[in-house]
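Annex B. Sample input.
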Amino acid sequence: MSNPVSPPRPTASALRRASWPGSEMRVGDAERSAVADRLAKHFSDGRLDETEFSDRLDRAMRAKTMADLTGLLADLPEDTPVLGPVGGRRHQRKMLQIQLERERVRLRYERREQRNAERRQRWYTLRWLPLFVLLLVAAVVVAHTLTHSIGTWIVLGLIVFVWLRHRTSGGNGSS
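Annex B, continued. Sample output.
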């Protein structure tokens, strides 16, 4: 069972194909753009997922030689010329639509994450509310009991009396 690595590195056959005369020639922006266009086509056809497309596109833009560019397309079908001129306005419009769709997906993801973070913050803040209400009710019950119960006042009075008597007797016994 094979586990595909994203994105695949050039295979031996791809390197052999890359060893044609001129494979070590430096590439220009036009060649990089052509490979980027092919990658975008494969991405729009569903042959590449978003992470593979992004990684390969970055590698294409950093490519120095023709061999670097060929390795990026080694495992993809040859439905268009390997290195052709950049398409016209129609192709540019299509590329802009792809970029726009990627931005929309990214924005949707960021908004969803922001909403989830806000929900977590609300839940974190509200989880203390029942404890606060319980403490408030307990304080009201204790205050009500202390102000309306004669027994409580008698017990408090006895405690104060014993404390004062003990205090005065302790002071006289030490002299």
